[in-house]
Amino acid sequence: VPTKILSHLLSARGICEKPFEIKIDNIRFAGFPKTVSHPTGRSPQTFHVVFILTAKVTADLVTSFQELSRKIAIAIDEEQTRCDYLAEQMTIILNEHEKRITSRR
């Protein structure tokens, strides 16, 4: 699956706050997209915690990973509220990305 199609499928637009599951070929993606409660500056408006599983896993296991994703998403959102965690991490990621682009020139 091309990266652009996969990124569109995994983007959280319109599906936040609900368990997520999609199967592509022999891979199953299970997760929980979350709307950021208190977005700031460079923090995203939404994010998605996703686990990649084999397609043949049981429905109970998929549900367990979706629940784990939900709990991780809630914790990340609480850290965003407490200390601007997502904005800080986004800045780090974007700075590293920029360094790599610059070093390739």
Percentage of residues in helical conformation = 40-55%
Main structural class: alpha+beta
List the uncertain runs. none
What string gives the helices and strands in order?
HEEEHH
Shape summary: globular
Compute the separation of the termini in Å.
29 Å
Largest sheet: 3 strands, antiparallel
Number of domains: 1
| Widest β-sheet, arrangement of strands | 1-2-3
User: Which percent range describes the beta-strand content?
Assistant: 15-25%
In total, the number of strands is 3
How many DSSP helices?
3
What is the C-alpha radius of gyration, as a whole number of Å? 15 Å
Mean pLDDT: 92
Question: Could you name the key traits of this structure?
Answer:
globular; 50% helix; 105 residues; Npr3; alpha+beta; 22% strand
How do the strands and helices of this protein lay out in sequence?
Blueprint: H1 3-10, E1 20-24, E2 27-35, E3 46-54, H2 59-83, H3 85-104
Antiparallel strand pairs: 1-2, 2-3
Structural features, described:
InterPro entries: Npr3. One of its GO terms (biological process) is TORC1 signaling. With 105 residues, the protein is of the alpha+beta class. The chain has one domain (3-104). The chain is 50% helix and 22% strand. It is built from 3 helices and 3 strands, in the order H-E-E-E-H-H. The mean pLDDT is 92.
Short description:
The chain contains 3 helices and 3 strands. It is α+β, with helices and mostly antiparallel strands and 105 residues long. The chain has one domain.
